[in-house]
Design brief:
Arc Repressor Mutant, subunit A, 2 domains, 3% strand, Four Helix Bundle (Hemerythrin (Met), subunit A)
Length: 231
C-alpha cells in the first residue's frame, strides 16, 4: 500500500494562469495548443504578420512567442522559408521511444518506493480527467498529469526534467495519432492498471506494464504516420 506522507503530490509544471501571462506567452500557448493537437499540421508556414493580425498585436510579441515555441522544438526557422512548424520524423519517434523506455520505467521503479496516498489520489484524478476530456488538448494535459503523478515521488528532478522534455517532443505525434485514430479504452485500462500496481507496491510489474504502454503508443503513432503517407 502507498506510504502516508505530507509531500505535495500535485506540483505539476504547468503554464501560469492566463491572467499572469505576458502577451507573448498567451500567443505561444494558443499556437502550442494548435500544433500539438494537429490543428496546425507539420511543416506549415507560420506567418508573423498573420499571427499579429489575428491577436491584434505588433510583431514583437509574436517573435517572442515563436522563439518560445522554437525552444520547445515545435517550430523551426528555415532558411528562405521563414518560420514553420517542425516536420514529423519517424526516426525522432523511435529515438524518443528508446529514451523514454530507458528513463520512465526507472523513474517508476524509484517512485514505487515512496508512492503515497496523495500521489495515488492525484493519479486517479488525472485518469478521471482523461476519461472526461472534451478535446485532444484536455486529454493530453490530463495524460501528462497522470504520468507525472506516477514519476514525481522518485525525487529525481534532473531525470524528470528530461522526461518532460521528451514527452513534450512526443506530444505533437501523440496529438496527431489521437486526432486521426482516437483515444481508445485500452489506454485507459492500461493507466488504471498501472495505478493499481503502484498502489499495490508491485514495482516490477508496473515497470513492465509501463514499458509495454510506451511501446504500444509508439507503434500506434508510426502506424498513423504510415496511414497518412508521412515518411
Amino acid at each position: 500500500m502507498p506510504k502516508p506522507s505530507t509531500r505535495p503530490a500535485t506540483d505539476d509544471a504547468t503554464m501560469p494562469p492566463a491572467a499572469n501571462m505576458t502577451t507573448a506567452e498567451r500567443i505561444a500557448a494558443e499556437l502550442r495548443r494548435e500544433i500539438v493537437t494537429a490543428e496546425i499540421g507539420p511543416d506549415t508556414a507560420i506567418r508573423q504578420s498573420h499571427v499579429a493580425a489575428r491577436f491584434g498585436v505588433s510583431q514583437a510579441p509574436v517573435r517572442e512567442a515563436l522563439s518560445l515555441l522554437a525552444s520547445e522544438h515545435l517550430v523551426v526557422y528555415a532558411t528562405n522559408r521563414g518560420v514553420r512548424t517542425a516536420s514529423f520524423d519517424r526516426a525522432e519517434v523511435r529515438e524518443i521511444t528508446d529514451l523514454r523506455l530507458t528513463l520512465e520505467p526507472d523513474l517508476l521503479s524509484r517512485a514505487a518506493k515512496a508512492f503515497t496516498p496523495a500521489d495515488a489520489t492525484a493519479a486517479a484524478r488525472a485518469i478521471d480527467e482523461i476519461s472526461q476530456a472534451a478535446d485532444i488538448h484536455a486529454l493530453m494535459r490530463a495524460n501528462d498529469r497522470f504520468h507525472m503523478a506516477l514519476y514525481r515521488p522518485a525525487a529525481r528532478p534532473l531525470t524528470l526534467a528530461m522526461v518532460r522534455d521528451l514527452r513534450g517532443r512526443h506530444g505533437r505525434y501523440l496529438g496527431f495519432m489521437w486526432k486521426h485514430s482516437g483515444h481508445g479504452p485500452a489506454s485507459l485500462r492500461e493507466h488504471r492498471g498501472l495505478l493499481k500496481l503502484m498502489t499495490d507496491g508491485d514495482a516490477a510489474q508496473a515497470r513492465d506494464q509501463l514499458r509495454a504502454h510506451i511501446a504500444a503508443s509508439s507503434k500506434a503513432i508510426l502506424a498513423a504516420l504510415d496511414e497518412h503517407g508521412i515518411d
